[in-house]
Write a structure and sequence with these properties.
2-enoyl-CoA Hydratase, Chain A, domain 1; six-stranded mixed sheet; three-stranded mixed sheet; 2 domains; Lyase 2-enoyl-coa Hydratase, Chain  A, domain 2
Length: about 250
């Protein structure tokens, strides 16, 4: 996989996707938006990949969507402008719908669209001094595309308060509102991310994929059928048998 704005590292069953525009704090231009979409769609279908880590090279995770591109979009005709918004939505959906667990490894800044990327990661590990911000209202727009993802992650109350003020806050507060799951010193982020990754590798790939799908569409309509299907599946039987036989299932070896 070769990309202009991303750095991809494959280490066994782990893929690390690093945004690689450090000179602009990984501001997401149209190229990066499309490349994030493409790489997550590829990794979604790769049976050899079990965990994906999303990070940013340089001093920041991501400062959001590139404002030069954003201004240019505003000068497009209406249909082109809407199409550009849909491209951004496609990126978030590609991450959110990915069948593999996605860890956000966050430091520096996570503003606007970068904040949005945190909302579509399954687990977020952040440096405690990271600065978070829904900054859109400060530049005359609103966080419309990331709104539904953000409400699911932190609730409507926090979304309204942070979205209307544009205030900045640190990793500790991000953890309190549910945006971030683990906050540590910046020097400890890599170690904790590795620990979380190793824990995820213990889980059944099929069960993880099904659970993520279940979380996106949760209701009781087909819950009995779902658990029955998984209990009788090859991985379900292997997991239950391995537990009873006091051994590791094949996917955890």
């Amino acid at each position: 996989m070769s990309f202009k704005t991303l750095q991809i590292s494959l280490n066994g069953r782990i893929a690390t996707v690093s945004m690689n525009r450090p000179e602009v704090r990984n501001a997401m231009n149209t190229t990066m938006i499309q490349e994030i979409t493409d790489v997550f769609n590829e990794l979604h279908q790769d049976p050899n990949i079990r965990v994906i880590i999303l990070s940013g090279n340089g001093p920041s995770f991501s400062a959001g969507v590139d404002l030069e591109d954003m201004r240019a979009m505003g000068e497009m005709n209406w249909n082109e402008n809407v199409a550009a918004g849909n491209k951004l939505l496609d990126m978030y959906l590609a991450v959110d719908n990915c069948s593999k667990p996605v860890i956000g490894k966050v430091h520096g800044h996570a503003y606007g669209g970068g904040f949005g990327l945190c909302t579509v990661c399954d687990i977020v590990v952040a440096a405690e001094n990271t600065s978070f911000c829904l900054s859109e209202v400060l530049i005359g727009i609103i966080p419309a595309v990331i709104g539904p993802f953000t409400v699911k992650k932190i609730g409507n109350s926090h979304f309204r308060a942070l979205g209307i003020s544009g205030e900045r806050f640190d990793g500790k507060y991000a953890s309190e509102i549910g945006l971030v799951h683990y906050t540590v010193k910046e020097s400890e982020v890599d170690e904790l991310t590795e620990s979380v990754t190793n824990q995820l590798l213990k889980a059944s790939p099929q069960a993880v994929s099904k659970f993520k799908e279940y979380c996106r569409n949760m209701d009781n309509t087909h819950s009995a059928e779902l658990i029955a299907d998984l209990r009788s599946s090859k991985e379900g039987q292997e997991g239950l048998t391995a537990f009873l036989e006091k051994r590791l299932p094949h996917w955890a070896k």
